[in-house]
Amino acid sequence: AIPTRVGLVPISADAETLFPYGHLLFVGTRQGMLVYDLAESKTAPRLIGQASHVVSCDPVVVENDVAYVTLRSGSACRRGTNALLVFDVKDPTRPQQIAQHPMTSPHGLGVDGSTLFVADAKDGLLVFDVRDPSAPKLMAKAPEVSGYDVIASAGTLLVSADDGLYQYRYGPEGEVQAEPLSRIPIGAPTLQVAEEPNHSY
Questions:
Q1: Closest of 81, 119, 115 to residue 101, by C-alpha
Q2: Which of 51, 174, 180, 200 could form a disulfide with 166 if both were Cys (CB 3.0 to 4.6 A apart)?
Q3: In 10 A of CB 79, how many CB atoms?
């Protein structure tokens, strides 16, 4: 209820996302993916590995010793590119890129087992089969599910969009229900003020 800062680690890059994975912390930056070790001290993470790429917006998630990174171009991301990169991180000190998949405008992503979800600003929600992470296979598109970040866990998909937080169900093969289970709106609601009746006394 009362978070307290217990450490400060400078990062010489434009950091965007954090993803804890066991005793490791993966940091997505616009210049590349950084890997920190938390085993010795959680309050003083130690940089042990990195993978550089062209300057782009860069979120990262990790599953089964594989890191998935989306790169996105745009004004805030300078020259950038639009792609999904896949890294083998069994040896976190030496991440090895094993795949690159072209994309349109990828934002956030989430992974659950062998299913990878990518929120694309133009194509909607993309669902990949990553049983072979060196060859991600696009299984489905849900263009009606638009957003900029996703969290996938045990059949429930959370999608954050400009107008709210949506919750969807997905099946074992990654199929996503078209209608959301719930929606939490974001932003101040517009108040409708009713006109008072004109009483004459």
A1: 81
A2: 180
A3: 9
> How far, in Å, CA of 77 to CA of 107, rounded?
12
Tokens found for residue 118: 């990518």
pTM as predicted: 0.85
Amino acid making up residue 145: V
Alpha-carbon span 73 to 57, nearest angstrom: 7
What letter would DSSP give residue 178? Answer: S
E strand segments, 72-169: 83-88, 96-102, 106-112, 115-120, 124-129, 137-142, 149-153, 156-161, 164-169
Longest CA span, the chain: 84
Q: Which two tokens stand for residue 23?
A: 């005793």
Q: What is the full per-residue pLDDT of the chain (201 aa) written as tens digits?
A: 999 999 999 988 888 899 999 999 999 988 889 999 999 999 999 999 999 876 667 789 999 999 999 988 765 665 668 899 999 999 999 999 999 999 988 989 999 999 999 998 888 889 999 999 999 999 988 888 878 899 999 999 999 988 889 999 998 878 888 788 998 988 755 444 444 444 443
- At 110, list the tokens: 């989430």
- Contact status, residue 105 vs residue 82, Cβ threshold 8 Å: yes
3-state secondary structure string, 43-59? CCCEEEEEEECCCCECC
How far apart CA 5 and CA 3 sit, in angstroms, is 7
